[in-house]
């Protein structure tokens, strides 16, 4: 008899239904020579240090670093009942073969492997691998299973990632916490991790840039020109040593030029037009879907993932935790069935576009969207052959985003007419640009999101420096050499603005692109597709940082807290703040997945790295210094780095009194 283990109950039931098993059991479904059961996500967790040795429970320098000889695991208490069910089935005498049907990826491999090993099972394993839970996709994947050993590299990479994160997290967190406590009692735990700390550093660096930013005033000169075909506005500029200059440093300069040009005639130096074609956007992967949902609807990354997961379990979309924006040739061959499902579904707004496709049938996806080499574990997010009916609210919003993005791939380019007018007045030049959409093409199906002016004005974080302004709609038809009247000249004051604070979508993009600045080409390559974390873990990492009081969510932006800033500012180990560590790991884990890297060598290097981090944190000076007595209670105050770079505060740890203060120069250096 064959045992099939899925990752979640809904997935297990979908497999059972597709394979013709009767019934809907609470913890398993049996019939036709098969037993289907499921995990509930992770059923097994790594033991804490005290689970190995009671001597490791106290947080003490002489107990670090902590290196278990062999990692140990235990069932998660909240789901132990289901673990017991799965373990019993794994060891049932009539079960002769096991199918690993967890999510097709590194984390799914780990979920199965931990349960399989903790249950003490040695029976042969087949690997079930699919990106869709529709009955047709399930049966196809079931007939194409491979022996579990074909995925040994993926399994080794999954184990190594989990163990390495445990070693770094446990040891670096304890060492940093002990360091923060060195000058006296300090609240809470100072958690450090391979992904969470460089992610926090992205937000802290942006916040410090904003706080340290000093706005600089500037002035521009605008002119309104009158032409027989209509009026238009231009902005003064000139070319200096190959650079475009369009600002004045003082108001006097702008007004002096305006006075000199007043009453002078103008003429068209040049009027050029060009046509720009914009191709359809690539299909969604999870991160781009999360960014778009955050931008359009204000959804959190975690919320978007939950909605997409629900749609997947309803068999309406493909596997959501994907990092690919392409389809394979085999996927593309199924695309007509997805179009048919959209025509039978509830999105009536798409019907005109589907009717258009019928007139042009048969249609084929452009090769931009189909590339087997760009797909690793899972292809891009697309609707399935199951029509969507009865969806409402946020689930419908996410489904519609995915459906529109997929359908838009079949439509022609968006065509825009770009016009640039250069107007000359007494040797000075003014530039005017305008855009007119000639053909909407794919953008009629999947309209780009444009933030309303009222929304921008309401959010100071959205402020940006002034740049070229495009005229809304068309510009008057002008020709080179024609005369124009200078109707008005008006200087306009502006100020440089700091970078904007990050929305959740911005942080996801920064995490996805982290590591592109690395010098090492191999590390850049390793992080090209993954960045910080994976599509499946980034949402959880943001929530973890919030839970640990390192960041907070305010409206649609994420802000580092004082604690988060103090951690990054005071952490002496650059390796823990940088994306380079993740890049190095991911490069080696990918080689391990391909069978080109030894798990033993990788883990030996991780232990060496952890030892060096513990030593570095232990040798680093404490990030706090004792000050004078507290004016309220008389207890010693401590000098702590403020959230503003280069500034400090005196804080009493007894009564919590805080006042501004500056340490002596020698002390200030020591505190870093």
Architecture overview:
With 672 residues, this protein is of the alpha+beta class. It folds into 5 domains: 2-144, Rossmann fold (3-Layer(aba) Sandwich); 162-212 and 501-619, Topoisomerase I, domain 2, CATH 1.10.460.10; 217-279 and 414-495, Topoisomerase I, domain 3 (Distorted Sandwich), CATH 2.70.20; 295-408, Orthogonal Bundle (Topoisomerase I, domain 4); 625-670, no CATH class. It is built from 21 helices and 22 strands. Strand 19 (625-629) and strand 20 (636-641) form a beta hairpin. Helix 6 crosses helix 17 (562-570) and helix 15 (521-527) crosses helix 19 (580-593).
Please supply descriptive tags for the structure shown above:
672 residues; alpha+beta; Topoisomerase I, domain 2; Topoisomerase I, domain 3; 22 strands; 38% helix; 20% strand; disordered C terminus
Give the topology, please.
Layout: E1 2-6, H1 9-18, E2 28-31, E3 34-38, E4 44-46, E5 73-75, H2 80-90, E6 97-101, H3 106-118, E7 125-127, H4 135-142, E8 146-147, H5 152-181, H6 196-212, E9 217-227, E10 230-240, E11 243-245, H7 251-261, E12 266-278, H8 286-297, H9 301-313, H10 329-344, H11 351-360, H12 393-408, E13 414-425, E14 428-439, H13 453-458, E15 470-472, E16 483-495, H14 504-513, H15 521-527, H16 538-547, E17 551-554, E18 557-560, H17 562-570, H18 574-577, H19 580-593, H20 599-619, E19 625-629, E20 636-641, E21 648-652, E22 658-661, H21 665-670
